[in-house]
Amino acid sequence: MQVERHATPLMMATLLLLLAAGCGSVLDDARGEPVATPTNFNGLVEQLAAREFAVASVVSGDPGCSDQGLVPMAISFKISGGGIEGAVQARVYRFKNGDSYEKLRANVDACAAEWIGDASRLLMVDASPYVLVTEGIPDGEVADAIRAALHAAAGE
């Protein structure tokens, strides 16, 4: 059997394409599925906005308490819309990693106790590396929407 000369380059190109396609699948399998990662504060604001909330009066480094160890993680802001009457003070604490979260998480509770006026109106949402604390968010759909925004921002 004799192969025509012009058919050889076509067969070689086909083999190379099949080989390249197979390598991509093997490399993808070795790397695994991409893992969602937490977003920055702007990403959290986008997640809140997607649920019809607005964020204003943003102050970086304001933990709301005397614990200076929380200053680098703290951002205070006012949240409104999404079913909230008026604007409500909120703070989000974003930790560098899981170890930092575990080490300092209890400090957020102590800090919140300094600035929350009515513990029965407290909303605290944990979605590592974030902890969001606010007062005056009614339980139900509004609180659920804030929880969903925080969990999405955390990459969950």
Describe this structure in words.
The chain has 156 residues and is α+β, with helices and mostly antiparallel strands. The protein has 2 domains: 1-34; 41-153, no CATH class. It contains 4 helices and 5 strands; from the N terminus they run ααβββαββα. The chain has a 5-stranded antiparallel beta sheet, sandwiched between helices. β4 (122-127) and β5 form a beta hairpin. The longest helix is centred in the N-terminal third of the chain and has 25 residues, at 7-31. It is elongated and about 80 Å long.
Short description:
With 156 residues, the protein is an alpha+beta fold.
CA radius of gyration:
25 Å
- The number of helical runs is 4
Biggest beta sheet summary: 5 strands, antiparallel
User: Which structural class is indicated by helix and strand composition?
Assistant: alpha+beta
- Helical residue percent? 40-55%
Total number of beta strands: 5
Instruction: Give the N-terminus to C-terminus distance in angstroms.
Output: 60 Å
Residue share in β-strands: 25-35%
Question: H/E element string?
Answer: HHEEEHEEH
Give the total of domains: 2
With strands numbered from the N-terminus, the spatial order across the biggest sheet is: 1-2-3-5-4
Contiguous low-pLDDT stretches (5 residues minimum) are none
Mean pLDDT: 85
Bulk shape: elongated
